[in-house]
Amino acid sequence: VDVESIIELLFQQQPLSSSNGLSYYNYGTAGFRFKANVMDGLMVRVGILSIILLLKQAEEVVSPTSTTASTTTSIITTLSTGIMITASHNDESYNGVKLANPDGSMLVPIQEEFLTKWVNESNSEEWKQLLINEKLVFKLKNRILQSSSLSLSLSLHIGRDTRSHSFHLSNLLCLGAQTFIDYLLLSQSSQSSSQSKSNKVNIIICDHEVLTTPMLHHIVLHSNPTLYLPSYITPKPTRKGYIETYATAYIDLCVDLCVAANANADVNNANVNANVNTNQQQTVLRIDSACGVGYDAVKELENAILNTNTSLALITTLNAQNGPQDGPLNDSCGSDHVKTLFLPPTWWKQMNKDNNDNDNQNDNGNYSFPYCCSIDGDADRIVFFGQQSKNELSEFLDGDKIAILIAHVLQEKLSKTKTNSNNSNNSIAIAIPTMGIIQTAYANGAATNYVRDVLQLPVIITKTGVKHLHHAAVENFDIGIYFEANGHGTVVFSKQYEQFAIRQQQQQQLKDSFYIGLHRLINPAVGDALCDMLLVDYLLRSLGTNDNGAAAAAGSSSSSSSSSSSWTLQDWNTKLYQDLPNRMLKVKVKDRTIIKCNSNESICLQPLTVQPLLENAMNVATNGIENGRCFIRPSGTEDIVRVYAEAKTRTDADKLALIASQIVYDECNGIGERP
Ligand code: G16
């Protein structure tokens, strides 16, 4: 492979063309995301560029001038990054690429800028120079490695969702990456033949085919284990490893919960059936998989959990609905549909069957689906809901509610740990990990107030995009809980937390302490619908644990009939705080890039006329809207402007959202019908 053939490949499918209606491929909220039919050339380029990024990452982790490189023993150093081909919550016509760094996190701005520059570069001479330079640097690195005993084994992990074009786009990406690898390694083999038969740098592409986005991040992170993780987390970097890890972590926590609640339990006996209140009604969680990739993953998780021979009363039965065969992806189902429209998903195959039975008996639609959740097309977001009638949600719980549930339980635990420590004879004061919550402007005002005023925890508001929340969480807290209101989020833990968790474990009789168990159940790389689902289920159980040791879970009883302090979705929804009514709308405009916002996207800076009009609309004296808050921002994943409004009443929230939409339409060249 020579440079000319790569250039030919690159320009065969010229990514920029006036016919596709794009002037520029921008790196959006979660990577490049466009209509799938304009992405062919982009994928080839991202394939090549991702190998360059991988080599740059390797350079940062393994410096040939470091002492490691000069030792005489042979060391093979491995490093992995990843790419997921998905457009997540978007409809089937879109596709996209999300890149993962070695720690499983998303790209940082400098990497995004590098990618954006080169996917848009239409000058073939510039490209030629880049490729030649990269080859020279690669040769030099390899020569330095030849003089040491260091070998590098680099992997690019690739996954894709169930979209009809994902396979094709994945092939193009692999083609770009493999051609560039061949170009680099060819020089290496000829150069090294006189010194060594083996390659000093090996670069491979691992195509994992259809995966959830969090599985891909898991595989990347755990392929680089020693770099980022505590000793108590050792999952296998495979799909199976992912399923086993989180199924086991969930069961261990549920069993520990029961053991802790049963004073007479045999703590060494993992199967604590005998000690469980066997009258406990079995809980079923129905999962709307958005007709996407999460369906199979939930099924696998369900099997892994059921195969552990644990008492069914201790765990929740997962019931996956809406698989890829049941309807179009994210269409009238999935977390985005439920969150934006406050409507239950359609396509419930099993439920519809059940419902028909119910309908026959009761014209009012007497449903009983108290415990449900919806994930999105690549299974990285989740919202919970209960459904008691055909077209309405009885409860709705979003990312804000999940974050606060986690914070609530952790705060209680930490406070107990502190009290126990103060009461013990231990003269060394225990350092309690710091905790904070990261939200975006979409967080419900009631949620932000609750965190600040009731939990008295710090809140940071960032731009939309989990990449922003993730970094803020890592940089500011030992326990950084970050969730977007749309259900996208996770918890990140610092090294201090890990040491704290290990010390707590040493002081307890249980196999794992709560703190270690919690860390094992959370995907530290990225928001993960399935981990978050198991985590919420466990937390609700933990809040429902009574003195008899029965862990009553969310769907099993209503709060009024509960004999213990069981937490149903209704409890979760009402016992902490009540959401302010809110509404999200989308407005189509000619060019959404004319809209610029402040750093956390709560204020519109351009066009200049927009913000004063929004302020006026929010002013109670103007429209009589109490507690009104609204903002607008251009989406980074769809060709629309998003409008958010909240107010004291549902009517006012809807009214404010409508006014804000009209402002966007009028001031930003709206297209189509005026809202
Ligand atoms: C992506 C991002 C999220 C973001 C969402 C919507 O989610 O990862 O952080 O909230 O897009 O972004 P925007 O409002 O800019 O369209 P996903 O699940 O689609 O990858």
UniProtKB/TrEMBL annotation:
Occurrences of domain Alpha-D-phosphohexomutase alpha/beta/alpha (ranges): 64-121
SUPFAM superfamilies associated with the record: Phosphoglucomutase, C-terminal domain, Phosphoglucomutase, first 3 domains
Keywords noted in UniProt: Isomerase, Magnesium, Metal-binding
Coiled coil: none
Tagged with keyword GTP-binding: no
GO molecular function: metal ion binding; phosphoacetylglucosamine mutase activity
Gene3D superfamilies: Alpha-D-Glucose-1,6-Bisphosphate, subunit A, domain 3, Alpha-D-phosphohexomutase, C-terminal domain
Pfam families: AMG1_III (PF21404), PGM_PMM_I (PF02878), PGM_PMM_IV (PF00408)
Boundaries of every Alpha-D-phosphohexomutase C-terminal domain copy: 626-657
Cofactors (names): Mg(2+)
InterPro entries, per the entry: A-D-PHexomutase_a/b/a-I, A-D-PHexomutase_a/b/a-I/II/III, A-D-PHexomutase_C, A-D-PHexomutase_C_sf, AMG1_III
A single BP term in Gene Ontology: UDP-N-acetylglucosamine biosynthetic process
Residues of the Phosphoacetylglucosamine mutase AMG1 domain: 398-542
PANTHER family per UniProt: PHOSPHOACETYLGLUCOSAMINE MUTASE
Family: Belongs to the phosphohexose mutase family.
Protein name stated in the entry: Putative membrane phosphoacetylglucosamine mutase
Organism: Fragilariopsis cylindrus CCMP1102
